[in-house]
Design brief:
- With 198 residues, the chain is mainly alpha-helical.
- Helices cover 69% and strands 0% of the residues.
- It contains ten helices and no strands.
- The longest helix has 25 residues.
- The N and C termini lie far apart (60 Å).
Length: 198
């Protein structure tokens, strides 16, 4: 492996390499050697910036989870436009994109990673799913304030239904992401009794 290659932002370079490995080879294929091979850098580069591989994975997950906040802001910004169901269907398709869907099993199956993430982000929830949940809940709350979702709607239960159902729809990406009609059906079913107007 090359040792004299200058990396402008080594952490981000390694995260991007890890994302490519994760998408191509899954959680089981994500090793420190696979990451540094993909990044075309010496293994020592990873250990120069992270105490160990689990610390690297914590950084990766938190970096990718932070990107969901940008999507959450866009979703909240769409409140009052188009339809509630249309906005949510589009948002679920974006929020459960290939990277978040690949990261969730990584967190689920690595006990040490989960433990470190709990220390890094107290407050509960699984990183990535917690951010998606906050995005959907925030959007529904905005729409309720605008009167497009009924005032007595149980936002927490609606959010759990949408995020849980969305995760199930998108979790099996082997044949590809679900059809837009399936996502739309999930959203309209969940919102059937709470959406106001057309």
């Amino acid at each position: 492996m090359p040792t004299g290659v200058h990396l402008r932002d080594p952490r981000q370079h390694l995260f991007d390499a890890a994302e490519r490995v994760l998408l191509r080879d899954g959680a089981n294929g994500l090793t420190s050697r696979a990451v540094t091979d993909e990044a075309a850098c010496a293994k020592g580069v990873l250990h120069r910036h992270f105490t160990d591989f689990d610390a690297f994975l914590v950084g990766l997950v938190l970096d990718r989870a932070a990107r969901i906040e940008e999507q959450a802001q866009a979703l909240r910004g769409s409140a009052g436009t188009r339809t509630v169901a249309g906005n949510l269907a589009d948002a679920l398709t974006t929020l459960f994109g290939p990277v978040p869907v690949a990261i969730i099993p990584l967190i689920t199956f690595r006990d040490e990673l989960r433990a470190r993430l709990r220390q890094a982000t107290p407050g509960g929830g699984i990183a990535v799913l917690a951010q998606i949940t906050a995005a959907v809940s925030g959007y529904l709350t905005e729409e309720r304030a605008l009167g497009r979702v009924s005032a007595d709607a149980d936002i927490d239960s609606l959010t759990l239904s949408l995020v849980g159902g969305g995760h199930l729809l998108f979790a099996d990406r082997e044949p590809g992401p679900p059809e837009a009609a399936a996502v739309g059906k999930l959203v309209t079913s969940a919102l059937a009794d709470v959406v106001q107007g057309p």
